[in-house]
Amino acid sequence: MLGLGIVNGLIVTMKNFFRKPFTISYPEQRVLQHPRFRGEEFTWYEERCTACASCAKFCPLGIIRIVTHPSGETPTEGDSYAIDAFDIDIGRCMFCGLCVEACPYDALFMGSGFEEAKPSRRNLVITVDHLRAADKRPSTWFRPQLEAQGYDPHKGTEVTWRDAGREHFLYHVPQRPEQESSTATEEGKP
Amino acid sequence: MPIRSEPVTVNVGPQHPSTHGVLRLRVTFDGEVILDMEPVFGYLHRGSEKLGEERTYTQVITLTDRLDYVASMTNNQAYVLAAEKLAGIQAPERGMYLRVIAAELQRVASHLVATGFLLNDLGAFATPLMYCFRERERILDLFEMLCGARITLSYMRVGGVFQDAPEDFWPALRKFMADMPHYLDEYEQLLTDNEILVTRTKGVSILNADHALNASVTGPVLRASGLPWDLRKIDPYEIYNRVQFDVPVGKAGDNYDRFKIRIDEMRQSLRIIEQCIDQIGPGPVRAIVPSLIRPPIGDAYGRIEGPKGELGFYLVSDGSIAPYRFKIRSPSLINLTVLRDILIGWKLADMIVTLGSIDINMGEVDR
Ligand code: SF4
Ligand code: SF4
Fold first, then answer.
1. Does the beta-carbon distance from A141 to B292 stay under 8 Å?
2. B347, B272, B352, B342: which is closest to B107 by C-alpha?
3. How many C-beta atoms surround the C-beta of residue B166 within 10 A?
4. B148 to A110: CB separation less than 8 angstroms, yes or no
5. What backbone phi and psi angles, to 5 degrees, belong to B212?
6. Contact residues on chain B for A177, CB-CB shorter than 8 A
7. Comparing C-alpha atoms, which of B361, B354, B353 is closest to residue B334?
8. Which residues, other chains included, contact B133 with Cβ-Cβ below 8 Å and sequence gap of 6+?
9. What is the pLDDT of residues A91-129, one digit of tens each?
């Protein structure tokens, strides 16, 4: 019958009319992101970082710039490197997280925020000082050790480098008992 | 006295470089009737195929996200299948199930976008689109749980998925699975018998099966013409041979069938996900793969049934860490080629609807 389809459609519209709104008004109300949310403001633990630059090599866009010099701290035991620059140009970053996946020492984590507005593009470069000073609220993305603790960056407190734990390749491949970490063997090479 | 009219050529479509989905249609009209038309594309060309040749096999995954940006998951899947074929890697079972669940969710999301925008183009301004987006939003929330992103997912890796689903993913997925059929019923109640929709789309822009076959059209557009060609059935990849589902086909190949078939396919996708949830067992989700993959010299073509049609990746390896040649067979581009033939003789208003019913994505057309 002509018109019946439209009446049927209107019933649906009426049903939806009395439903609770699905949208929220953003700046006042917020949805909590999932702990795995890959956000800006990388969390970087200097204590863990060996300046191996695996993250820089693995970034598809090549936007991580690392400058180092031999620190001269423990020359007898094998010198470690001191970091002069660790810039991440998040103006071009696509938050794919491959740098985090590449880090063999669990020093780099994705951040958890998403509100980054800057007046100029230059300000979008995260420098080493930014990274040092930033809130340590790492995303649990690719870091199952944080997930195992039930850590939520949007609710919990900050995580120090000791609490963050080391990710083990076994978390991803539970059936290999020996630590066959391909991440470490391939990318750990200088 | 008869009114004398002469053909006019009009450029239709947004062409500003900052808009997304830039497609220009050069149409010759006689009054309102289309005499000739030619899709002009290339405005969104980013050289993805060339860029892929200088990135490692893992890094290319991030490029595939940006092809069809409303269906990143299936792009990931097609690419990793091609790369796995090339490198001779077998993904573990749980990884394959997770990939299928994610890909079917993505198919639902993509069809929701297609349906919503088709109706939006039809003049049902925003209401059905918003209903569709409401459900799509929940799928994106599920994706955020899985991989921390909503659009540019990069969830899959060569040899599996990057990480197992978190604990709270499964209850959320079940809840979604329980709700979604009601929403689909609602869409059908709202739309399928709606007289305006039926008059506007039934019998409009008919693509017959022969023509579709000759033009290499795939996906819902081909199935709407009556050919049950679905790679998930015909060339089962991953675990599709373990799940039961039907391939919905249309009869006439008109705009209405192309709209209806997407709703039917969503139901089938939900069926597949349900079976996957039942069948998925514990185990690893990712094979042990070096992070710099060096596949043996050779080539491989991996294809899947994407939401828009057969999505294929052709990779040639020269033994190095990056593909020597990276070619994308994108369904949108090939489906777009029939647009001219099915539009001639129809009116301007039908053009927009037909374009919507073919469901192209410019990110994939131009690459
Ligand atoms: S998230 Fe991706 S694009 Fe951004 S710095 Fe890391 S690897 Fe590069
Ligand atoms: S990969 Fe990790 S350890 Fe190496 S430089 Fe980057 S953050 Fe530091």
1. no
2. B272
3. 16
4. yes
5. -60, -40
6. none
7. B361
8. B112, B113, B116
9. 888 888 888 888 888 888 888 878 778 888 888 888 888
Residue in chain A nearest B152 by alpha carbon: A96
pTM score, whole prediction: 0.85
**Lookup result for tokens 């439903």:** A19
Mean pLDDT, range B318-326, rounded to an integer = 87
- Conformation bin of residue A171: beta by default, left when phi > 0, alpha when psi is -120 to 50: alpha
Length of chain A: 190
The answer to whether the Cα torsion of B115, B120, B122, B128 is positive or negative is positive
Strand partners, A126: A88
Count CA atoms within 13 Å of residue B96 on its CB side.
16
Write out the two tokens for B13.
Answer: 């479509």
Q: Which two tokens stand for residue A137?
A: 């609220």
Q: Coil, strand, or helix at residue A79?
A: coil
- Asked if pLDDT for residue B343 goes beyond 60, the answer is yes
Per-residue burial over A108-120, b if 16 or more Cβ lie within 10 Å, else e, is bbbbbbeeeeeee
Angular region, B205: left φ>0, alpha ψ -120 to 50, beta rest: left
> What pLDDT score does A75 carry?
63
Q: Find the range with the poorest average confidence among A120-124, A156-160, B269-273, B362-366.
A: A156-160
β-pairing, A108-111 vs B160-161, is unpaired
The per-residue pLDDT for A184 is: 41
Q: What percent of chain B has pLDDT over 90?
A: 2
| Residue type at position B44 | L
Task: Reduce the secondary structure of B156-207 to three states and give it as a string.
Answer: EECCEECCCCCCCHHHHHHHHHHHHHHHHHHHHHHHCCCHHHHHHHCCCCCC
* pLDDT greater than 50 at residue B30: yes
Question: What ipTM describes this predicted complex?
Answer: 0.78
A64-70/A81-89 β-pairing: antiparallel
**What is the number of the ligand 2 atom nearest to the C-alpha of A44?**
7
Q: Is A105 in the pocket of ligand 2 (CB under 6 A)?
A: yes
Task: Give the pLDDT confidence score for residue A176 in this predicted structure.
Answer: 42
* Residue in chain B nearest A175 by alpha carbon: B284
The rounded mean pLDDT for chain B is 85
